[in-house]
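Before a colleague's protein record goes any further, I have to sign it off. Alongside the sequence sits a line of tokens, each denoting a local backbone shape. I want your independent view on whether this chain really folds as the tokens say. Where you disagree with what is written, explain briefly why. This is what I was given:
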Amino acid sequence: MANVSVLGTGRMGKGLVKVLSPYMSEIRWGSRSVERAAKLIEENNYKNVQAVTYEEALDSEVIFHFGNGLGNIGCRRIAKNTARYDCGGSFQKYILYVSFRLFGMDE
């Protein structure tokens, strides 16, 4: 099974971790505040979720990110209308990025 990361501890990140955790053997929960992610993991008694930095989360094979942009985690889109991002290092990442703007919501 693929190594999965969820970026962000906002309402969408919390919801996705809650939905995925019963079905995934390991989830990395990336946050600007690892302490906040760790607190949420403890409060929800997630056994298979690990709090990590954004940099650590970007090592995963599958990355979910909900927000208004990926620049805040150091990534840039490689080609318009693709899911390919350059996040540094010698490889590219495919990131499922869902913009709140698509749904008329702000973070």
